[in-house]
Amino acid sequence: MNSSEIKKLDKEKIVSTYSRYDLVADSGKGACCISADGRKYIDFTAGIGVNSLGFCDDGWVEAVTSQLKKLQHVSNLFYTQPQVEVADILTARTGMKKVFFGNSGAEANEAAIKTARKYGTVNKGENANKIITLNNSFHGRTMATITATGQADYHKFFTPFLGGFDYCDANDIKQLESMVSSDTCAIMMEMIQGEGGVLNLDEAFVKAAEKLCREKDMLFIIDEVQTGIGRSGKLFAYEYFGVKPDIVTFAKGIGGGLPIGGAVFSEKCCDVLEPGNHGTTYGGNPVACAGALEVLKRIDDDFLEKVAEKSQYIREKLMELPQVKSVSGMGLMLGVEIEGKEAGQVVKDALKEGLMILTAKDKVRMLPPLTITYDEINEGIKILKKALA
């Protein structure tokens, strides 16, 4: 099928839950995507932060293909080597104790929410089930995680919501302190509010939240679905803030392109969930874990240092553009404030010129593959400059 036929069939047969951009992707390599019509695009999206090693990385393809030839699925009623190897690396590199595997960021956050509520009920009383999240946050689209999300736009049409969530303004320590009660079981936050506009939290606020959790016997949950697995220039972004969370959720980039998510648990709460409390059919699938294992093996200290260097280079190049007012974010998760042009229009104009980028609120959002080359960066910035003119 050609592009027109694919788009026509999509419109007829697929539920319209996405406002798709005018690109039919056919193949790719690294940070280059080729359309069904044979046109080349520089990719600054990585599938919304998923393709951490870019398109069709040779090592990743080999790891996944090798596992496919052995065992594609067996369920969590049995043991598999790829799953325990990924868990071993994650716990060793974080100092945490155990891992729960799911298929997505929303599932990862669901596991964290259920753990927090059971922890509160068992340790603080049957009413200790409230979780404080932040205004402008995003935690997923299931009924629990959309309720945890502190954005009114995501709450339209879907009432009644799950109870027990309260929303605090980001970086307001006094408000946070005033909201904690004996019924609060957890505080949950992103280190960078990605969907909320690529907004970094203040270190003092993050540390204050951790301190409250220690004093009031609550769980400190950090959502690293988008910021984790090297995206920030550290394995997890919380490392920049000098805190030790109780639960860290992850997804997106760990799979390198296959659906996998999960949560890493500290000793304080690693045994809260017991058989029958929670589960998933596909979570920790051996093929997805084989891909995750390749990603984690590649993201070592040298790799992370290169991510930080690329981040600084992109920031400098962006600030040379007269239309760019500011750049927020960390590592290769950047929010670009544009003057004189609406972000959505910038994305459309850039795509016409051959660059794939995203939006986050009123900013242009960049999530390129962590393996992007400097030649690809330069080509992408050159196209963006043309789109902004």
TrEMBL record:
<dbReference type="Pfam" id="PF00202">
    <property type="entry name" value="Aminotran_3"/>
</dbReference>
<dbReference type="GO" id="GO:0042802">
    <property type="term" value="F:identical protein binding"/>
</dbReference>
<feature type="binding site">
    <location>
        <position position="141"/>
    </location>
    <ligand>
        <name>N(2)-acetyl-L-ornithine</name>
    </ligand>
</feature>
<keyword id="KW-0663">Pyridoxal phosphate</keyword>
<dbReference type="GO" id="GO:0003992">
    <property type="term" value="F:N2-acetyl-L-ornithine:2-oxoglutarate 5-aminotransferase activity"/>
</dbReference>
<feature type="binding site">
    <location>
        <begin position="105"/>
        <end position="106"/>
    </location>
    <ligand>
        <name>pyridoxal 5'-phosphate</name>
    </ligand>
</feature>
<keyword id="KW-0028">Amino-acid biosynthesis</keyword>
<dbReference type="InterPro" id="IPR004636">
    <property type="entry name" value="AcOrn/SuccOrn_fam"/>
</dbReference>
<dbReference type="InterPro" id="IPR005814">
    <property type="entry name" value="Aminotrans_3"/>
</dbReference>
<dbReference type="InterPro" id="IPR049704">
    <property type="entry name" value="Aminotrans_3_PPA_site"/>
</dbReference>
<keyword id="KW-0963">Cytoplasm</keyword>
<protein>
    <recommendedName>
        <fullName>Acetylornithine aminotransferase</fullName>
        <ecNumber>2.6.1.11</ecNumber>
    </recommendedName>
</protein>
<comment type="similarity">
    <text>Belongs to the class-III pyridoxal-phosphate-dependent aminotransferase family. ArgD subfamily.</text>
</comment>
<dbReference type="InterPro" id="IPR050103">
    <property type="entry name" value="Class-III_PLP-dep_AT"/>
</dbReference>
<comment type="pathway">
    <text>Amino-acid biosynthesis; L-arginine biosynthesis; N(2)-acetyl-L-ornithine from L-glutamate: step 4/4.</text>
</comment>
<feature type="binding site">
    <location>
        <position position="280"/>
    </location>
    <ligand>
        <name>N(2)-acetyl-L-ornithine</name>
    </ligand>
</feature>
<dbReference type="GO" id="GO:0030170">
    <property type="term" value="F:pyridoxal phosphate binding"/>
</dbReference>
<keyword id="KW-0032">Aminotransferase</keyword>
<dbReference type="GO" id="GO:0006526">
    <property type="term" value="P:L-arginine biosynthetic process"/>
</dbReference>
<feature type="modified residue" description="N6-(pyridoxal phosphate)lysine">
    <location>
        <position position="252"/>
    </location>
</feature>
<feature type="binding site">
    <location>
        <position position="138"/>
    </location>
    <ligand>
        <name>pyridoxal 5'-phosphate</name>
    </ligand>
</feature>
<keyword id="KW-0808">Transferase</keyword>
<keyword id="KW-0055">Arginine biosynthesis</keyword>
<feature type="binding site">
    <location>
        <begin position="223"/>
        <end position="226"/>
    </location>
    <ligand>
        <name>pyridoxal 5'-phosphate</name>
    </ligand>
</feature>
<comment type="subunit">
    <text>Homodimer.</text>
</comment>
<dbReference type="InterPro" id="IPR015424">
    <property type="entry name" value="PyrdxlP-dep_Trfase"/>
</dbReference>
<feature type="binding site">
    <location>
        <position position="281"/>
    </location>
    <ligand>
        <name>pyridoxal 5'-phosphate</name>
    </ligand>
</feature>
<dbReference type="GO" id="GO:0005737">
    <property type="term" value="C:cytoplasm"/>
</dbReference>
<dbReference type="InterPro" id="IPR015421">
    <property type="entry name" value="PyrdxlP-dep_Trfase_major"/>
</dbReference>
<dbReference type="InterPro" id="IPR015422">
    <property type="entry name" value="PyrdxlP-dep_Trfase_small"/>
</dbReference>
